[in-house]
Amino acid sequence: MFSPSPEYPSVGNLTQLGFNVQDLKTGSHLNNVTATVTVINNSTANIGTGISKGTPNGDFSIFKNISAPNGSFSVKDHFLQAGTHQIIARINSKNNIFSALSSFNVIVLSPQ
Hints:
Elements: E1 2-5, E2 14-20, E3 33-40, E4 60-68, E5 72-78, E6 83-93, E7 99-108
Antiparallel strand pairs: 1-2, 2-5, 3-4, 3-6, 6-7
């Protein structure tokens, strides 16, 4: 499950991107997972110029090695442009039994 806070972020404001990783069969939280989150601004990233470790370059930001011992985690990001932004999360189990990829869109509003 994915939930941005606030639900509709504004340009320049800090937004918390929250994730809850659940077993699709049982609905229970998955334990001991790690995640990588990529935020693509306006879905037009130039991948060749990316900067990792959560440092935005204007096109995208990557947050790596996020620990989620109880299946829940979040990252904070500033959106620099209005529009639709893509959030991609890759989830890995600590013992490498499984890996999952998910994608979400966030609509960022212009400041009023």
